[in-house]
Amino acid sequence: MRYVSTRGQAPVLGFDDAMLAGLARDGGLYVPETVPQIPAHEIADLAGIGYERTAFAVMQPFVGGTISDAELYGAIERAYAGFAHAARAPLVQIGENDWILELHHGPTLAFKDFAMQLIGQLFELVLGRRGQRVTIVGATSGDTGSAAIEAFRGLDAVDVFILYPHGRVSEIQRRQMTTPTEANVHAIAVEGDFDDCQALVKAMFNDHAFRDEMSLAAVNSINWARVLAQVVYYFTAAVSLGAPHRPVSFSVPTGNFGDIFAGHVAKRMGLPIDRLVIATNRNDILHRTVTTGMHVKEGVQPTISPSMDIQISSNFERLLFELLDRDGQAVINLMESLRQQGGFALPETALARLRQEFDSGMATEDETRATIAAMREVTGQVIDPHTAVGVKAAADVRGNAGTPMVVLGTAHAAKFPDAVGQACGVRPVLPARLAHIELARERTTVVPNDLAALQALLRQEARR
Ligand SMILES: *Cc1c(COP(=O)(O)O)cnc(C)c1O
Protein backbone atom coordinates (compact mmCIF):
# COMPACT_ATOMS: atom_id res chain seq x y z
CA MET A 1 0.00 0.00 0.00
CA ARG A 2 1.21 3.48 -0.85
CA TYR A 3 0.41 6.66 1.07
CA VAL A 4 -0.30 10.11 -0.37
CA SER A 5 -0.49 13.49 1.33
CA THR A 6 -3.81 15.33 1.77
CA ARG A 7 -2.08 18.34 0.19
CA GLY A 8 -0.83 16.42 -2.80
CA GLN A 9 2.71 17.80 -2.84
CA ALA A 10 4.75 15.41 -0.69
CA PRO A 11 6.53 12.24 -1.80
CA VAL A 12 4.38 9.10 -1.98
CA LEU A 13 5.59 6.71 0.75
CA GLY A 14 5.18 3.12 1.91
CA PHE A 15 3.55 2.32 5.27
CA ASP A 16 6.84 2.24 7.18
CA ASP A 17 8.09 5.59 5.92
CA ALA A 18 4.69 7.24 6.38
CA MET A 19 4.69 6.00 9.98
CA LEU A 20 8.19 7.30 10.73
CA ALA A 21 7.48 10.63 9.00
CA GLY A 22 4.25 11.39 10.88
CA LEU A 23 3.46 14.68 9.16
CA ALA A 24 4.02 14.93 5.39
CA ARG A 25 6.62 17.40 4.14
CA ASP A 26 3.99 19.62 2.52
CA GLY A 27 2.25 20.05 5.89
CA GLY A 28 -0.45 17.51 4.95
CA LEU A 29 -1.41 14.17 6.47
CA TYR A 30 -0.71 10.78 4.93
CA VAL A 31 -3.68 8.69 3.77
CA PRO A 32 -3.72 5.36 1.92
CA GLU A 33 -3.91 5.62 -1.84
CA THR A 34 -6.89 3.26 -1.87
CA VAL A 35 -9.03 1.75 0.89
CA PRO A 36 -8.92 -2.06 0.92
CA GLN A 37 -12.29 -3.81 1.02
CA ILE A 38 -13.21 -6.68 3.32
CA PRO A 39 -16.14 -8.56 1.73
CA ALA A 40 -19.14 -9.47 3.89
CA HIS A 41 -18.31 -13.17 4.12
CA GLU A 42 -14.84 -12.32 5.44
CA ILE A 43 -16.33 -9.93 8.00
CA ALA A 44 -18.62 -12.77 9.10
CA ASP A 45 -15.54 -14.96 9.56
CA LEU A 46 -14.15 -12.50 12.14
CA ALA A 47 -16.80 -13.58 14.67
CA GLY A 48 -15.22 -15.18 17.70
CA ILE A 49 -11.62 -15.21 16.47
CA GLY A 50 -10.34 -12.79 19.13
CA TYR A 51 -8.97 -9.26 19.10
CA GLU A 52 -5.47 -10.02 17.84
CA ARG A 53 -6.54 -12.04 14.81
CA THR A 54 -9.15 -9.44 13.90
CA ALA A 55 -6.46 -6.76 14.19
CA PHE A 56 -4.28 -8.71 11.80
CA ALA A 57 -7.08 -9.18 9.24
CA VAL A 58 -8.02 -5.49 9.32
CA MET A 59 -4.52 -3.98 9.26
CA GLN A 60 -2.59 -6.37 7.03
CA PRO A 61 -3.81 -4.91 3.70
CA PHE A 62 -2.61 -1.45 4.82
CA VAL A 63 0.94 -2.47 5.76
CA GLY A 64 1.48 -5.15 3.13
CA GLY A 65 4.81 -4.96 1.34
CA THR A 66 6.71 -3.26 4.16
CA ILE A 67 6.14 -5.54 7.16
CA SER A 68 5.83 -9.33 6.84
CA ASP A 69 2.74 -11.15 8.10
CA ALA A 70 4.74 -12.86 10.87
CA GLU A 71 6.27 -9.56 11.97
CA LEU A 72 2.90 -7.84 12.02
CA TYR A 73 1.21 -10.58 14.00
CA GLY A 74 4.08 -10.65 16.50
CA ALA A 75 3.85 -6.88 16.97
CA ILE A 76 0.08 -7.11 17.53
CA GLU A 77 0.48 -9.88 20.11
CA ARG A 78 3.13 -7.98 22.06
CA ALA A 79 1.16 -4.71 21.86
CA TYR A 80 -1.97 -6.07 23.52
CA ALA A 81 -0.48 -8.68 25.85
CA GLY A 82 -0.42 -6.16 28.71
CA PHE A 83 -4.12 -5.29 28.49
CA ALA A 84 -6.12 -6.21 31.57
CA HIS A 85 -9.14 -7.68 29.75
CA ALA A 86 -9.07 -10.83 27.60
CA ALA A 87 -11.39 -9.20 25.05
CA ARG A 88 -9.09 -6.11 24.93
CA ALA A 89 -12.12 -3.95 24.02
CA PRO A 90 -15.18 -5.45 25.77
CA LEU A 91 -18.75 -4.25 25.21
CA VAL A 92 -20.92 -3.38 28.22
CA GLN A 93 -24.68 -3.09 27.77
CA ILE A 94 -26.23 0.13 29.10
CA GLY A 95 -29.69 -0.01 27.54
CA GLU A 96 -32.01 -2.12 25.45
CA ASN A 97 -29.88 -1.74 22.35
CA ASP A 98 -27.17 0.59 23.67
CA TRP A 99 -23.59 -0.27 24.57
CA ILE A 100 -20.31 1.15 25.78
CA LEU A 101 -17.16 -0.14 24.13
CA GLU A 102 -14.64 -0.07 26.98
CA LEU A 103 -11.32 1.11 25.59
CA HIS A 104 -9.65 1.72 28.95
CA HIS A 105 -8.12 -1.66 29.77
CA GLY A 106 -4.64 -0.72 28.51
CA PRO A 107 -1.70 0.34 30.69
CA THR A 108 -2.63 4.05 30.94
CA LEU A 109 -6.42 3.60 31.14
CA ALA A 110 -7.34 5.48 27.95
CA PHE A 111 -8.04 4.40 24.37
CA LYS A 112 -4.78 5.94 23.19
CA ASP A 113 -3.03 2.77 24.41
CA PHE A 114 -4.55 0.80 21.52
CA ALA A 115 -2.60 2.84 19.00
CA MET A 116 0.47 3.73 21.05
CA GLN A 117 1.24 0.19 22.19
CA LEU A 118 1.16 -1.02 18.61
CA ILE A 119 3.13 1.90 17.21
CA GLY A 120 5.83 1.27 19.84
CA GLN A 121 6.24 -2.28 18.57
CA LEU A 122 6.19 -1.21 14.91
CA PHE A 123 8.79 1.53 15.48
CA GLU A 124 11.09 -0.99 17.17
CA LEU A 125 10.62 -3.40 14.27
CA VAL A 126 11.22 -0.93 11.45
CA LEU A 127 14.09 0.90 13.15
CA GLY A 128 15.79 -2.34 14.17
CA ARG A 129 15.69 -3.57 10.60
CA ARG A 130 17.24 -0.35 9.32
CA GLY A 131 19.78 -0.03 12.12
CA GLN A 132 18.34 3.42 12.89
CA ARG A 133 17.42 5.13 16.13
CA VAL A 134 15.07 8.05 16.77
CA THR A 135 14.37 10.58 19.47
CA ILE A 136 10.65 10.95 20.00
CA VAL A 137 9.56 14.34 21.26
CA GLY A 138 6.01 15.23 22.19
CA ALA A 139 3.95 17.69 24.20
CA THR A 140 1.04 16.54 26.32
CA SER A 141 -1.80 17.94 28.34
CA GLY A 142 -2.12 14.52 29.98
CA ASP A 143 -3.22 11.32 28.23
CA THR A 144 -1.00 11.23 25.15
CA GLY A 145 2.26 11.62 27.05
CA SER A 146 1.69 8.75 29.42
CA ALA A 147 0.50 6.49 26.60
CA ALA A 148 3.66 7.29 24.59
CA ILE A 149 5.94 6.69 27.57
CA GLU A 150 4.27 3.36 28.32
CA ALA A 151 4.63 2.32 24.68
CA PHE A 152 8.29 3.23 24.23
CA ARG A 153 9.76 2.56 27.69
CA GLY A 154 12.72 0.22 27.51
CA LEU A 155 12.89 0.06 23.69
CA ASP A 156 16.45 0.02 22.31
CA ALA A 157 15.99 2.14 19.20
CA VAL A 158 14.07 4.99 20.81
CA ASP A 159 14.52 7.72 23.39
CA VAL A 160 11.31 9.45 24.40
CA PHE A 161 11.02 12.99 25.75
CA ILE A 162 7.59 14.18 26.83
CA LEU A 163 7.01 17.82 27.71
CA TYR A 164 4.19 18.65 30.08
CA PRO A 165 3.19 21.94 31.73
CA HIS A 166 4.74 22.06 35.22
CA GLY A 167 2.03 21.86 37.89
CA ARG A 168 -0.82 21.72 35.37
CA VAL A 169 -1.51 18.02 34.81
CA SER A 170 -3.43 15.85 37.26
CA GLU A 171 -1.44 13.96 39.86
CA ILE A 172 -2.27 10.60 38.28
CA GLN A 173 -1.29 11.80 34.83
CA ARG A 174 2.00 13.18 36.17
CA ARG A 175 2.83 10.03 38.10
CA GLN A 176 2.16 7.89 35.03
CA MET A 177 4.87 9.87 33.25
CA THR A 178 7.40 10.28 36.06
CA THR A 179 7.47 6.85 37.70
CA PRO A 180 8.78 4.61 34.85
CA THR A 181 12.40 3.76 35.68
CA GLU A 182 13.76 3.01 32.19
CA ALA A 183 16.69 5.17 31.13
CA ASN A 184 15.19 5.99 27.71
CA VAL A 185 12.18 7.74 29.28
CA HIS A 186 12.38 11.46 30.02
CA ALA A 187 9.45 13.32 31.55
CA ILE A 188 10.11 17.05 31.32
CA ALA A 189 8.18 19.64 33.29
CA VAL A 190 8.21 22.92 31.39
CA GLU A 191 7.71 26.14 33.31
CA GLY A 192 4.79 27.23 31.15
CA ASP A 193 1.42 26.02 29.87
CA PHE A 194 0.48 23.38 27.31
CA ASP A 195 0.72 25.83 24.41
CA ASP A 196 4.30 26.65 25.48
CA CYS A 197 5.15 22.93 25.45
CA GLN A 198 3.67 22.53 22.01
CA ALA A 199 5.49 25.61 20.73
CA LEU A 200 8.80 24.21 22.00
CA VAL A 201 8.20 20.90 20.22
CA LYS A 202 7.34 22.71 17.01
CA ALA A 203 10.44 24.88 17.31
CA MET A 204 12.63 21.80 17.73
CA PHE A 205 11.16 20.25 14.58
CA ASN A 206 11.57 23.50 12.66
CA ASP A 207 15.27 23.68 13.60
CA HIS A 208 16.22 21.34 10.75
CA ALA A 209 19.85 20.92 11.78
CA PHE A 210 18.79 19.91 15.28
CA ARG A 211 16.03 17.70 13.89
CA ASP A 212 18.52 15.78 11.73
CA GLU A 213 21.20 15.65 14.42
CA MET A 214 18.77 14.07 16.92
CA SER A 215 16.68 12.10 14.37
CA LEU A 216 13.53 13.60 15.85
CA ALA A 217 10.29 11.69 15.35
CA ALA A 218 6.69 12.42 16.37
CA VAL A 219 3.89 10.08 17.37
CA ASN A 220 1.05 12.57 17.73
CA SER A 221 -2.50 11.75 16.69
CA ILE A 222 -1.96 12.61 13.03
CA ASN A 223 0.31 9.59 12.59
CA TRP A 224 -1.51 7.27 10.16
CA ALA A 225 -0.39 4.16 12.06
CA ARG A 226 -2.32 5.41 15.09
CA VAL A 227 -5.51 5.89 13.11
CA LEU A 228 -5.13 2.44 11.57
CA ALA A 229 -4.82 0.70 14.95
CA GLN A 230 -8.11 2.31 15.97
CA VAL A 231 -10.02 0.91 12.99
CA VAL A 232 -9.81 -2.55 14.56
CA TYR A 233 -12.18 -2.09 17.49
CA TYR A 234 -14.97 -0.85 15.24
CA PHE A 235 -14.79 -4.28 13.60
CA THR A 236 -14.67 -6.31 16.83
CA ALA A 237 -17.60 -4.34 18.29
CA ALA A 238 -19.79 -4.42 15.18
CA VAL A 239 -19.16 -8.12 14.56
CA SER A 240 -20.08 -8.92 18.17
CA LEU A 241 -23.38 -7.11 17.62
CA GLY A 242 -24.32 -8.84 14.40
CA ALA A 243 -22.33 -7.31 11.53
CA PRO A 244 -22.21 -7.92 8.62
CA HIS A 245 -25.83 -9.09 8.89
CA ARG A 246 -27.04 -5.94 10.61
CA PRO A 247 -25.70 -2.38 10.77
CA VAL A 248 -24.36 -0.74 13.93
CA SER A 249 -23.99 2.96 14.87
CA PHE A 250 -21.19 4.54 16.91
CA SER A 251 -20.98 7.68 19.05
CA VAL A 252 -17.42 8.91 19.45
CA PRO A 253 -16.13 11.51 21.95
CA THR A 254 -14.06 13.67 19.62
CA GLY A 255 -11.22 16.17 19.81
CA ASN A 256 -8.63 15.73 17.09
CA PHE A 257 -11.00 13.62 14.94
CA GLY A 258 -8.59 10.65 14.96
CA ASP A 259 -10.78 8.07 16.67
CA ILE A 260 -13.90 8.87 14.64
CA PHE A 261 -11.95 9.04 11.39
CA ALA A 262 -10.95 5.45 12.12
CA GLY A 263 -14.68 4.65 12.16
CA HIS A 264 -15.06 6.29 8.77
CA VAL A 265 -12.23 4.10 7.43
CA ALA A 266 -13.91 0.97 8.85
CA LYS A 267 -17.10 1.93 7.05
CA ARG A 268 -15.31 2.48 3.76
CA MET A 269 -13.69 -0.95 4.13
CA GLY A 270 -17.16 -2.46 4.06
CA LEU A 271 -18.19 -2.63 7.72
CA PRO A 272 -21.93 -1.84 7.84
CA ILE A 273 -21.86 1.28 10.04
CA ASP A 274 -25.13 3.21 9.97
CA ARG A 275 -24.43 6.53 11.75
CA LEU A 276 -21.18 7.96 13.12
CA VAL A 277 -21.95 10.51 15.83
CA ILE A 278 -19.39 13.26 16.44
CA ALA A 279 -19.67 13.96 20.18
CA THR A 280 -18.05 17.15 21.48
CA ASN A 281 -17.89 19.10 24.71
CA ARG A 282 -18.29 22.89 24.71
CA ASN A 283 -15.30 23.09 22.38
CA ASP A 284 -17.70 22.24 19.60
CA ILE A 285 -16.10 23.34 16.33
CA LEU A 286 -16.97 19.97 14.74
CA HIS A 287 -20.58 19.99 15.97
CA ARG A 288 -20.97 23.48 14.55
CA THR A 289 -19.41 22.36 11.28
CA VAL A 290 -22.02 19.62 10.85
CA THR A 291 -24.96 21.83 11.87
CA THR A 292 -24.00 25.06 10.06
CA GLY A 293 -21.42 24.12 7.41
CA MET A 294 -19.04 26.72 8.87
CA HIS A 295 -15.73 25.44 10.26
CA VAL A 296 -14.72 28.37 12.48
CA LYS A 297 -12.26 28.51 15.39
CA GLU A 298 -13.22 29.92 18.76
CA GLY A 299 -11.10 30.15 21.92
CA VAL A 300 -10.52 26.92 23.85
CA GLN A 301 -12.56 26.63 27.04
CA PRO A 302 -11.30 24.30 29.77
CA THR A 303 -13.76 21.49 30.59
CA ILE A 304 -13.94 18.35 32.74
CA SER A 305 -13.24 16.35 29.56
CA PRO A 306 -9.84 17.98 28.93
CA SER A 307 -8.62 15.58 26.24
CA MET A 308 -11.21 17.10 23.91
CA ASP A 309 -10.39 20.74 24.68
CA ILE A 310 -9.18 21.43 21.16
CA GLN A 311 -9.99 24.01 18.56
CA ILE A 312 -7.84 22.80 15.69
CA SER A 313 -9.01 19.30 14.89
CA SER A 314 -6.01 18.03 12.93
CA ASN A 315 -7.40 14.78 11.55
CA PHE A 316 -10.47 16.52 10.12
CA GLU A 317 -8.18 17.35 7.19
CA ARG A 318 -8.22 13.66 6.26
CA LEU A 319 -12.01 13.71 5.95
CA LEU A 320 -11.91 17.03 4.07
CA PHE A 321 -9.61 15.41 1.53
CA GLU A 322 -12.28 12.75 0.90
CA LEU A 323 -15.20 15.21 0.93
CA LEU A 324 -13.34 17.30 -1.69
CA ASP A 325 -12.75 14.31 -4.01
CA ARG A 326 -9.08 14.07 -3.02
CA ASP A 327 -8.26 17.49 -4.45
CA GLY A 328 -5.03 18.47 -2.62
CA GLN A 329 -5.16 22.07 -3.85
CA ALA A 330 -8.71 22.50 -2.53
CA VAL A 331 -7.51 21.22 0.87
CA ILE A 332 -4.60 23.67 0.83
CA ASN A 333 -6.99 26.56 0.12
CA LEU A 334 -9.32 25.70 3.01
CA MET A 335 -6.46 25.13 5.48
CA GLU A 336 -4.93 28.44 4.44
CA SER A 337 -8.24 30.17 5.11
CA LEU A 338 -8.43 28.44 8.52
CA ARG A 339 -4.96 29.73 9.36
CA GLN A 340 -5.41 33.27 8.06
CA GLN A 341 -9.10 34.01 8.62
CA GLY A 342 -9.81 31.53 11.40
CA GLY A 343 -12.29 29.48 9.41
CA PHE A 344 -13.93 28.42 6.16
CA ALA A 345 -17.30 27.46 4.73
CA LEU A 346 -17.60 23.88 3.52
CA PRO A 347 -18.60 23.70 -0.15
CA GLU A 348 -22.22 22.54 -0.51
CA THR A 349 -21.54 19.09 -1.92
CA ALA A 350 -18.92 18.45 0.76
CA LEU A 351 -21.38 19.45 3.50
CA ALA A 352 -24.07 17.18 2.06
CA ARG A 353 -21.65 14.26 2.05
CA LEU A 354 -20.56 15.01 5.62
CA ARG A 355 -24.18 14.95 6.79
CA GLN A 356 -24.90 11.76 4.89
CA GLU A 357 -22.49 9.85 7.11
CA PHE A 358 -22.15 11.83 10.35
CA ASP A 359 -24.45 13.13 13.04
CA SER A 360 -23.20 15.36 15.82
CA GLY A 361 -24.05 16.33 19.36
CA MET A 362 -22.64 18.55 22.08
CA ALA A 363 -22.66 18.27 25.87
CA THR A 364 -22.30 21.26 28.19
CA GLU A 365 -20.49 20.78 31.49
CA ASP A 366 -23.79 20.41 33.37
CA GLU A 367 -25.08 17.91 30.84
CA THR A 368 -21.88 15.90 31.13
CA ARG A 369 -22.17 15.75 34.92
CA ALA A 370 -25.87 14.90 34.73
CA THR A 371 -25.09 12.07 32.30
CA ILE A 372 -22.46 10.61 34.66
CA ALA A 373 -24.99 10.74 37.52
CA ALA A 374 -27.80 9.21 35.45
CA MET A 375 -25.59 6.38 34.20
CA ARG A 376 -24.60 5.53 37.74
CA GLU A 377 -28.21 5.57 38.89
CA VAL A 378 -29.74 3.65 36.00
CA THR A 379 -27.02 1.14 35.12
CA GLY A 380 -24.59 1.18 38.05
CA GLN A 381 -21.77 2.08 35.65
CA VAL A 382 -19.34 4.81 36.70
CA ILE A 383 -18.18 6.47 33.48
CA ASP A 384 -15.57 9.13 32.78
CA PRO A 385 -16.48 12.63 31.51
CA HIS A 386 -15.32 11.97 27.90
CA THR A 387 -17.45 8.84 27.66
CA ALA A 388 -20.35 10.79 29.18
CA VAL A 389 -20.16 13.30 26.32
CA GLY A 390 -20.52 10.37 23.92
CA VAL A 391 -23.53 8.99 25.80
CA LYS A 392 -25.22 12.39 25.79
CA ALA A 393 -24.68 12.94 22.06
CA ALA A 394 -25.90 9.43 21.24
CA ALA A 395 -29.13 10.08 23.17
CA ASP A 396 -29.65 13.37 21.30
CA VAL A 397 -29.52 11.85 17.85
CA ARG A 398 -30.81 8.34 18.61
CA GLY A 399 -32.85 7.50 15.55
CA ASN A 400 -33.63 3.93 14.62
CA ALA A 401 -33.76 2.09 17.96
CA GLY A 402 -33.46 -1.22 16.13
CA THR A 403 -29.87 -0.38 15.21
CA PRO A 404 -27.40 -0.98 18.05
CA MET A 405 -25.70 2.22 19.27
CA VAL A 406 -22.16 1.83 20.60
CA VAL A 407 -20.56 4.67 22.58
CA LEU A 408 -16.78 4.58 22.61
CA GLY A 409 -15.70 4.57 26.28
CA THR A 410 -12.45 6.45 25.84
CA ALA A 411 -11.07 6.56 29.40
CA HIS A 412 -11.36 4.94 32.82
CA ALA A 413 -13.29 7.04 35.33
CA ALA A 414 -10.38 6.83 37.80
CA LYS A 415 -8.31 9.10 35.54
CA PHE A 416 -10.72 11.91 36.47
CA PRO A 417 -11.64 11.12 40.08
CA ASP A 418 -12.54 14.68 41.12
CA ALA A 419 -14.95 15.42 38.28
CA VAL A 420 -16.59 11.99 38.46
CA GLY A 421 -16.86 12.02 42.25
CA GLN A 422 -18.47 15.43 42.16
CA ALA A 423 -20.94 14.39 39.48
CA CYS A 424 -22.20 11.10 40.90
CA GLY A 425 -21.04 10.89 44.51
CA VAL A 426 -18.72 7.93 43.90
CA ARG A 427 -15.01 8.66 43.77
CA PRO A 428 -13.56 6.04 41.40
CA VAL A 429 -10.36 4.30 42.54
CA LEU A 430 -7.42 3.28 40.38
CA PRO A 431 -7.37 -0.38 39.33
CA ALA A 432 -4.98 -2.42 41.50
CA ARG A 433 -2.46 -2.82 38.68
CA LEU A 434 -1.84 0.93 38.76
CA ALA A 435 -1.93 1.47 42.51
CA HIS A 436 1.87 1.25 42.76
CA ILE A 437 2.36 4.57 40.96
CA GLU A 438 0.90 6.37 43.96
CA LEU A 439 3.95 5.41 46.02
CA ALA A 440 6.72 5.00 43.44
CA ARG A 441 9.59 7.48 43.28
CA GLU A 442 9.13 10.22 40.68
CA ARG A 443 11.78 11.23 38.18
CA THR A 444 11.34 14.48 36.27
CA THR A 445 13.42 17.38 35.02
CA VAL A 446 12.08 20.90 35.37
CA VAL A 447 13.19 23.20 32.55
CA PRO A 448 12.45 26.85 31.84
CA ASN A 449 10.32 27.72 28.83
CA ASP A 450 13.47 28.13 26.74
CA LEU A 451 14.37 26.38 23.50
CA ALA A 452 18.16 26.47 23.95
CA ALA A 453 17.97 24.97 27.44
CA LEU A 454 15.75 22.20 26.21
CA GLN A 455 17.93 21.42 23.21
CA ALA A 456 20.97 21.22 25.51
CA LEU A 457 19.12 18.77 27.72
CA LEU A 458 18.18 16.55 24.76
CA ARG A 459 21.74 16.55 23.43
CA GLN A 460 22.99 15.49 26.83
CA GLU A 461 20.39 12.81 27.59
CA ALA A 462 19.57 11.14 24.26
CA ARG A 463 21.59 8.13 23.18
CA ARG A 464 22.75 8.51 19.59
C1 LIG B 1 -7.63 11.82 23.01
C2 LIG B 1 -8.92 11.56 23.71
C3 LIG B 1 -10.18 11.82 23.08
C4 LIG B 1 -10.29 12.44 21.71
O1 LIG B 1 -9.83 11.59 20.69
P1 LIG B 1 -9.51 12.17 19.23
O2 LIG B 1 -8.96 11.03 18.48
O3 LIG B 1 -8.53 13.27 19.45
O4 LIG B 1 -10.79 12.69 18.67
C5 LIG B 1 -11.35 11.48 23.76
N1 LIG B 1 -11.29 10.96 25.00
C6 LIG B 1 -10.12 10.71 25.64
C7 LIG B 1 -10.15 10.14 27.01
C8 LIG B 1 -8.89 11.00 25.02
O5 LIG B 1 -7.73 10.75 25.67
TrEMBL record:
Entry annotated with the keyword Lyase: yes
Domain Tryptophan synthase beta chain-like PALP residues, every copy: 99-332
Pathway assigned to this chain's UniProt record: Amino-acid biosynthesis; L-threonine biosynthesis; L-threonine from L-aspartate: step 5/5
InterPro entries membership: Ser/Thr_deHydtase_PyrdxlP-BS, Thr_synth_N, Thr_synth_N_sf, Thr_synthase-like, Threonine_Synthase, TrpB-like_PALP, TrpB-like_PALP_sf
Keywords, sorted A to Z: Amino-acid biosynthesis, Lyase, Pyridoxal phosphate, Threonine biosynthesis
Reaction catalysis annotation: O-phospho-L-homoserine + H2O = L-threonine + phosphate
Positions of modified residues (N6-(pyridoxal phosphate)lysine): 112
Major enzyme class: lyase
A GO molecular-function descriptor: pyridoxal phosphate binding
Domain called Threonine synthase N-terminal: residue spans: 2-80
Obligatory cofactor(s): pyridoxal 5'-phosphate
GO biological process: threonine biosynthetic process
Transmembrane portions of the chain: none
Protein EC: 4.2.3.1
CDD domains given in the database record: Thr-synth_2
Family of the protein in this entry: Belongs to the threonine synthase family.
Name used for this protein in its record: Threonine synthase
Species annotation: Albimonas pacifica
